[in-house]
From TrEMBL:
Upper lineage: Bacteria, Pseudomonadati, Bacteroidota, Chitinophagia, Chitinophagales
Family annotation (Gene3D superfamilies): 1.20.1260.10
Pfam families: Ferritin-like (PF12902)
UniProt name for this protein: Iminophenyl-pyruvate dimer synthase domain-containing protein
InterPro entries xref list: Ferritin-like (IPR012347), VioB/RebD_dom (IPR026820)
Parts forming coiled coils: none
Length: 350
């Protein structure tokens, strides 16, 4: 096998990484959109911070794929359809499966988020559809496998032959990324490793499995994703002295699971067809969602100027539409549920 043959499975993993990171964003956003204005200030801030970092992770995965000469795909066939099921395949968790819905903010929803961000080495009972199959135990192990693949290829063929993509076709700091961390342009094994480590550390708090290297709250400025969601789940912040394997013991967080709009779980565009006003808003949201993803794909594949439009315009158009939609009851719904963005690929962008 030559280098190009050996790059193919790596490119497939990196495309899967992009889809994996993208799959987490709509559920987190949906929980955020469902909160009534003025409520759950700390919880909404925590979720928003995780969303920003997941977006960064998706774009870093795109940078990695572009750097090794791959083509980023963010089209109709690459976006999740909810409820979606992630499978982390491995010896310890090979039967671990859970459904991820677009659901309102609740303790059950936060519990699902905890499962998504589960660190390596933490055996937690599984939660009982489209599938996203990740060839590893957890997100962290999956990325560590990608890093090992890159190291092997660089050792065999040299970094200059592995990282052949145009750096102009990557998200860089010039796009003024807001959130924890900044985009890393991938040109070498060192920059690739730094990007992968950032993804793992923000999610799990360490580049090593927590069972091997204990996480220490006193040595970090920001709590990783799993622990941030655990703070919401338990209604308390962590202190520097807390044991990561135990619930947080710090200041109480004001959590009100009743201060939400009762949105329909995993709402579909087909659920709203007979209600023109709701259908229009949802289709408009989905049109902007699909446009933003198309522009990101265009940027990664040869037109970097599209990044500006996607990031500076596309992302900012979604929130107002979503907040308008979740406030509208579905007429005649026996449970009094409200509409919600369906995060589907609108037909105008097929």
């Amino acid at each position: 096998m030559n280098l190009q043959d050996q790059l193919l499975p790596l490119k497939e993993k990196l495309q899967k990484a992009i889809e994996l990171e993208l799959a987490t964003i709509p559920p987190y956003l949906t929980a955020l959109f469902s909160m009534r204005p003025g409520s759950n200030a700390m919880a909404s801030s925590i979720i928003r911070s995780v969303v920003m970092e997941e977006m960064l992770h998706m774009l870093l995965a795109g940078n990695l794929l572009s750097a090794v000469g791959g083509n980023v795909k963010l089209g109709k066939d690459n976006i999740p359809v909810y409820p979606v099921q992630m499978e982390f395949q491995g010896k310890q968790f090979k039967n671990r499966q859970f459904d991820i819905h677009l659901a309102a903010f609740s303790q059950d929803t936060i519990n699902v988020f905890l499962q998504i961000e589960l660190p390596d080495g933490w055996a937690v009972a599984p939660l009982e559809f489209d599938k996203i199959t990740v060839p590893g135990l957890t997100i962290g192990e999956f990325y560590r496998g990608i890093k090992e693949d890159l190291m092997d290829l660089c050792k065999t063929y040299g970094e200059q032959n592995v990282f052949t993509g145009k750096k102009e076709n990557q998200i860089s700091e010039e796009y003024f990324w807001r959130g924890g961390g900044t985009p890393i342009v991938i040109t070498s094994l060192g920059t690739a490793s730094a990007a992968i480590d950032l993804i793992i550390e923000q999610g799990e708090g360490t580049t090593e499995p927590i069972a091997v290297k204990a996480f220490n709250f006193s040595t970090t400025d920001e709590v990783p994703h799993y622990f941030r969601f655990n703070e919401i789940y338990h209604g308390r912040l962590y202190t520097p002295q807390d044991d990561p394997h135990l619930p947080p013991t710090g200041n109480v967080i004001d959590i009100d699971y009743n201060a939400i709009f009762p949105i329909k779980t995993s709402c579909k565009s087909s659920d709203l067809l007979q209600f023109p006003a709701l259908s229009y808003l949802n289709n408009l949201f989905n049109t902007n969602y699909a446009t933003m993803l198309s522009q990101l794909e265009e940027g990664f594949n040869g037109n970097p100027a599209a990044f500006y439009t996607a990031i500076l315009n596309g992302m900012h158009k979604l929130s107002p539409l979503a907040y308008n939609l979740v406030q509208l009851p579905i007429p005649g719904d026996p449970q009094g549920r409200h509409a919600a963005p369906s995060f589907e690929w609108h037909r105008d962008h097929e």
